[in-house]
Amino acid sequence: MRVPKNRSARGFSLLELLVVVAIILIITMVALPSFKEAQRHTREMAAIKAIQTIHTAQMQYQSQYGRFASTLAELGPPLSGRPSASSAALISADFAAGKRTGYSFSLQSTEGGYAINASPLSSSSGSRTFYSDETLIIRQSAAPEPATAASPEVSAG
Q1: Residue 126's beta-bridge partner residues?
Q2: Per-residue pLDDT tens digits for 130-151
Q3: Torsion of CA 72, 89, 53, 49, to 10 degrees
Q4: What's the pTM value of the predicted model, to 2 decimals?
Q5: What's the rounded Cα separation, in Å, for the pair 54 and 60?
Q6: Phi, psi for 154 (deg, rounded to 5)
């Protein structure tokens, strides 16, 4: 019994495969920078939301203990036992360690308040640094120097 050859099932030629690979590479080269920029923007927005979370935790801490927390650890959960002024359980343990969503966060006590700084862990995490304090105004800097109280405000858009 003889099986007839099916000409349409012969497969792809090398030239056809090369054309498909070239098209995929071109699409990737065009789309990748846009995708990376979208990721960076998302991480920066997450950093801004994290700063707002710290503000909320600070307001709760101040209401409970009569002062602002001087470190992120004071806002974090206790290692054991019940929450206290040294670990109020207002933010998660990973956040209290100072790193989240590609950013490094620090909280310092100031005279009459506190200051929050957020810096990207790498250039792919973000291109801006952020600063905020008890005024609740979030400021940004795209320059090499970190954001300060004199930096421009983050725009609402």
Answers
A1: none
A2: 999 999 999 999 988 999 999 9
A3: 80
A4: 0.78
A5: 10
A6: -70, 130
Give the span between the Cα atoms of 106 and 103, in whole angstroms.
10
Q: Which residues contact 13 (CB under 8 A, 6 or more apart)?
A: none
Instruction: Calculate the dihedral angle through the C-alpha atoms of 96, 98, 103, 104, rounding to the nearest 10 degrees.
Output: 160
Which tens digit of pLDDT belongs to each residue from 26-61? Answer: 988 887 778 888 888 999 999 999 999 999 999 999
134, 114 in Cβ contact below 8 A? yes
* Residues 156, 146 contacting (CB under 8 angstroms): no
CA 140 – CA 149 distance, rounded (Å): 9
Element at 14 (helix H, strand E)? helix 14-65
3-class DSSP assignment, residue 138? strand
